[in-house]
Structure formats: structure tokens, C-alpha cells
UniProtKB/TrEMBL annotation:
Domain (DUF559): residue spans on this chain: 17-119
Full protein name: DUF559 domain-containing protein
CDD domains: Endonuclease_DUF559
One Pfam family named in its UniProt record: DUF559
Species of the source: Flavobacterium petrolei
Amino acid sequence: MQPIYRNFIENLPYNIKLKARSRALRKAGVLSEVIFWLQVHKGMFWKIDFDRQRIIGNYIVDFYVKTLGLVIEIDGSSHNNKEDYDQTREDYLVSLGLKVYRISNLRVKHDLNNVMLELESYIVLEFGNKEAIC
């Protein structure tokens, strides 16, 4: 894989009141998120460290790659009819200097190999050709 650069965003806002909810979401384990997690945990995806159900400000994101400043959202039925909320949330995350990558939960369940290849391509495209992290 091509070397990729760090986009580490320091001192991200953190709402401590969401800690229990974040933990509960990790335990509950939405199927598509668990499937994705099994592909990326413990550095299995190009030795990149992923956090699951990470609190950023007043939001809990599905996955977060600290070294890249990358939020990965797996969109399922919980996002239906919440386009305005999702856009406000994404605008907030982007305002912090983060990048947001969205994946459909159906694609995770039914096209996982291509999902992972597309994520790899996105990372190379967005974070390639600078200080290597891998």
C-alpha cells in the first residue's frame, strides 16, 4: 500500500455525558457495524487503528481513525428521514478538520470485499503521498 499521512486532530471536543451511551452502543452491536469491525479491529486493515462508537463533541460516530482524522459512518435504517440531522452532524465534524466516509449497511452485509477495497482506495486518495503512518 502507498504511504499515507497523518491528519491527527488534537483536543477534539468530548461530551462525557455520552460515555454510557457509547458503551451501550458498542455492546449492542448493530450487525453491519460488527461485520465491519471484524475487518478492521486490532490493526487487521493495513495496521490502522480504528475506534468504535467514539464520542466527538455531542455526537457518537460509528468508527474513528485517530491518526487520519477520519470518521466512518455505516448508514442504515436509523438514518432514514434524518437527512438534515445527518448533514448538521457531518458539517460539525468537518468543521473540526475531520473527513467523513459513509458506507451503506446493506453494502457491508452484501458486498464487503468491495466496501473494503473502496475504503482502501479512499484512504490512499485522501491521505496519500505525505508522512507515512504504515
